[in-house]
Amino acid sequence: MIILEAKNITAGYTTEVNILTDVNVRLESGQIVSVIGPNGAGKSTLLKTIFGILKPANGKISLKNEDITGLRPNKVAQKGISYVPQVDNVFPSLTIQENLEMGAFIREDDYSQRLNEIYELFPILGERRKQKAGQLSGGQRQMVAMGRALMLDPQVLLLDEPSAGLAPNLVEMIFEKIIDINKTGVSMIIVEQNAREALKMADHGYVLAMGRNVLDDSGEALLANEEVGRLYLGG
Amino acid sequence: MEIGGIIAYLVSLAIMAGIYAVFALGLNIQWGYTGLMNFGIAGFFCIGAYTSAMITTPMPTGVYAKYVHQIFGLNLPFVFGLLGAAFVCGILALLIGIPTLKLREDYLAISTLGIAETFRLIFNNEHWLANGPRGLMGLPQPFQNWVDPKNYNYLYLVIIVMIVLIIYFLIERGIRSPWGRVLRAIREDEVSASMSGKDIFNFKMQSLIFGAMIMGMGGALYAHYTKAISPDVFTPLYGTFIIWVMLIAGGSGNNKGAILGAYVIWAIWIGTTFMTDLLPPALKARAPYIRFLLIGVMLEIILLYRPEGLLGEEKKVSKLIG
Amino acid sequence: MLELTVYGIVFGSIISLGAIGLSLVYGIIRFANFAHGDLMSTGAYVALFMVTVVLGWMGIPDTNFGSLSFGWRMLIALPVSMFVVAWVAIALDRILYRKLRVKGSHVGIMAMSSLGAAFIIRMIILIVWGADSLFYRPGILRPALELPVGIKIRPDQILILVMVFVLVALLHLFLQKTKLGKAMRATSDNMELALVSGIDTERVIIWTWGIGGALAAAGGILYGIDVQLHPYMGWNFLIPLFAATILGTIGNIYGALVGGLVIGIAQQVSTAFLMPTYKPAVAFLFMILILLVRPKGIFGGKD
Q1: Which pLDDT value is given to residue B63?
Q2: Which of A156, A219, B145, C174 could make a disulfide contact with A81, Cβ separation 3.0–4.6 Å?
Q3: Does residue C120 belong to the interface with chain B, where contact is any CB pair within 8 Å?
Q4: Is there a domain that residue A126 lies in?
């Protein structure tokens, strides 16, 4: 079942310049979809458009057949989509616990159960819950950022370059966590520079370049594809 | 009121509006073209007026020395007063600019506001400087021997108009030059302007100085019109705020707008004096506050619904583009 | 000198109330509110209206509590005025600033509009109450208490310190313990992330203005109790407010508290060398020094 679909998306930051032109991306329930491509391809812009930070000039975004195009971010969050930006993705002067609590802002119910689940997923956060997020290392911050997004119990998680700026062993850890999260039933769209790893995890992958779809196929197929390998995976 | 009286009244309005037009033109260079938030116009107003006053009057001697204190008195002709006021304000702008131009815009605003208030305090309290709260009186008027004192204002109006026109044309020439284009680029987007390699700080400084020099001249023109100045003239309301209202109403970034704004707002201001006749006696004492309230509300309405003012920004700024 | 310092702390704590509000607003919407001083005046005069008109009409007695200069009327008037000015501040934002913000107006336009709002408020005060200085309780004697160590302080002033302490403590608890308070801190850290997290930033902004306005009102009233009310009182606070806020680092309310005390003490101590009318200039001097030497304020960090 298609849980999220972006059709014919044309979008940009100003009305004169389009970053994305006629882009299509589809996410099936329970899947991990990876979006790869060179710098400036518009991958981050795609996530921002889906989440409502940007309004597309053209195109439609639907969540389970409900049209959510142009909804503001907090409305999109209420519908069950969470977004983790690439940079500035934690509240530095708030503690880890408070960051997570902010993730649950919209929730009216008792979320302490969910909080414990997040701490089980990221034990190191549980140990340091009173520490200010600004004092954490890059890897820990990424965990807080993801934890914050997960507090809403989202159906769909949008991740913008989760491995950016992390040391290789942390990259591996983060990707493992991503797979764990997916196993709990969260569908994901991941934008990644680290194309190889991203495709390994992916059920389906999209290659974006210059703001357009270039290719899409299953993760395995793209990994095996010679041209993809040459152009985007560093040989 | 007979026709002669009406004309004389209009002439005095035109002079005052013309003086404010000079200030508006100066502010237009700083804010309209470069985006500098000068909330301390009253400071340049004050320094310009006092400088010209003291250049053109002699040091008090004899009996007078007991009652009037001023720090210097050169007894030179008006022209020196005018140029001296411009010069001193230019230096002042340089000194003020060095610490403040690197700051973000709203810090510049509060800094210039503070400087203007500080000057007013100093002039009010330091009697040896310029006679403290009593201020300076008996200031000479240029060419005052040429005409009958009764008709002097007509002559002064001619002087004001000439000066306004000269300043207007000088600024128009300057804005159409490469220098002017850089100023506008700074106001639009400072980051990309700085990336094009120009030294932003220097341009901002020049804009601040030229604007200040013009404001200094405005101060001098005011002093020699009213023939008496004191610190309570140079308040944030009459010396800064009203000029901002004039420029915004007329059109920031438009020299014609600056002049038009000065005349329109001054006319409205004077026009409201007649309104006070309609007030019930209990409120008459509050008339100036009611009038100023109206000006303030007008400003907010303009900012909300027509921030570009009457004339909007000048479109043509390059001889090449047309 | 000790006496000046003590009074500096009292006066400084009043400045802090205003500076905290200014800092809060600045931290969240990056806007220097030139009307903040006049919000303090508004608070003072609304309380005056209550004390002299409304509460008298309602039959509340005019007697004062012991050696304090105020009584039941002020006890009621103060929180009511804080509430009223909270709404005045919110209204100011909704009617004026927000519209300009949404349009993406230049910082200068917004500053100018707040300057205009400051003048409008002041003109209204001048129209209603005139230009003279007024008092909550005219003609009352306010003797000073002698405390150990030779400190002289009036009972009113002790209460001012207590009041400020209580308000700051309440604010602290609000920001640390409540969901909305944490959301305010989050929004101050990173407004876009707050939006992304689903925080209702519009509500946060409204509360920020409300709290800022209420604290400003309290400051104005306390000043009115201690000294006097006059229409320019708020304007005279403007430069000390900005100096305290910048000194304490914009957006940092504990910094604003410290900054207020520093500026207050500096202003009072300066009267040992300079004429009292120069006090705003002293505050201004401190502000310029900080901007030159350490523009991010003593607590560093955000701009």
Answers
A1: 67
A2: A156
A3: yes
A4: yes
